[in-house]
Design a protein that fits this description.
Blueprint (H helix, E strand, L loop, with lengths): L6 H9 L19 H13 L3 H4 L3 E9 L2 E14 L4 E7 L8 E8 L1 H4 L4 H4 L3 E2 L1 H6 L9 H11 L3 E6 L15 E4 L9 H11 L3 H7 L20 E2 L20 E2 L5
Parallel strand pairs: 8-9
Antiparallel strand pairs: 1-2, 1-7, 2-3, 3-4, 4-6, 5-6, 6-7
Keywords: Signal
Protein name: OBAP family protein
Organism: Pantoea brenneri
């Protein structure tokens, strides 16, 4: 069973590693929180249990881009729950402070489970091999040995990611429809300024991390994953009109419309 760091231990580690260093990217309209609402919040915090939240025990920081638009890139703060040996789930925020905005979710499955998916389903998922091996995916605060063991578990997994708040563009409220996100697969795809800014805030060196992970065995990506590389772009669309997530530069093909049953 994949056992990650307990929340209490993780909190102590993160307190010293700059995990309160990435404020939210947006400012939402609204009146200041009233004293009565603050009191209600405090009471609920004391009296109510939150098992799904308490089950979150690992923090990962990485990067996503819109499927079909490689120029729409953003940092993504993942808070991960391990469901079993083959399945994890993550809530994704635009920062790591208390007021961070919830951007979306990512489901993470093992290579074994990915191989069982139908061909059309496989197109929705991206590989994690490059993210791990390149050092662009980090687990802030973990000692090198623990980081290495964790990344060995993640390197050959696959993720399906939907962003519901596009904080790179929508700076006040979650506008529009969800977008399918992808992960980088090779050098030269990612905006180096994003990586440099992340490394500075966390006081890490992604090049050094890459070297430390050189011995981690990464399998070739399974056929069907990272379908954007073969020009298969999948995004939700409204019944009328085009997609909402273009940044106007790089496109890999027409978007496939996904319809709910």
């Amino acid at each position: 069973m994949l056992k990650l760091w307990p929340v209490a231990a993780l909190s102590l580690l993160l307190a010293g590693c700059g995990a309160n260093n990435s404020p939210a990217k947006v400012q939402s309209p609204g009146a200041p929180t009233s004293s009565s609402l603050k009191l209600l919040e405090t009471g609920a915090e004391v009296m109510q249990s939150r098992p799904p939240i308490d089950a979150i025990n690992t923090y990962l920081d990485g990067f996503h881009f819109y499927n079909g638009d490689q120029n729409g890139q953003m940092e993504a703060h993942h808070y991960v729950t391990v469901l079993n040996e083959d399945v994890m789930q993550a809530v994704i925020y635009d920062g790591n402070t208390r007021d961070a905005r919830l951007m979306g979710v990512e489901y993470i499955i093992s290579e074994r489970l990915y191989k069982t998916l139908p061909p059309e389903e496989k197109k929705l998922w991206h590989s994690h091999q490059y993210e791990v091996k390149s050092g662009t995916l980090i687990a802030p605060g973990l000692p090198e040995a623990a980081d290495h063991a964790l990344m060995k578990r993640i390197v050959n997994t696959y993720g399906k990611t939907w962003h519901t708040w596009h904080t790179d563009r929508d700076k006040t409220l979650p506008i529009g429809i969800p977008a399918l996100m992808m992960g980088f697969t090779a050098d030269g795809q990612m905006d180096s300024r994003l990586l440099a800014d992340r490394d500075r805030r966390f006081d890490v060196d992604s090049k050094k991390i890459r070297a430390q992970r050189a011995d981690i065995v990464a399998h070739p990506a399974e056929p069907g994953a990272n379908a954007w590389q073969q020009g298969e772009v999948i995004q939700l669309q409204r019944t009328h009109g085009g997609g909402e997530h273009s940044h106007g530069q790089t496109h890999f093909g027409p978007a496939e419309q996904l319809k709910q049953p």
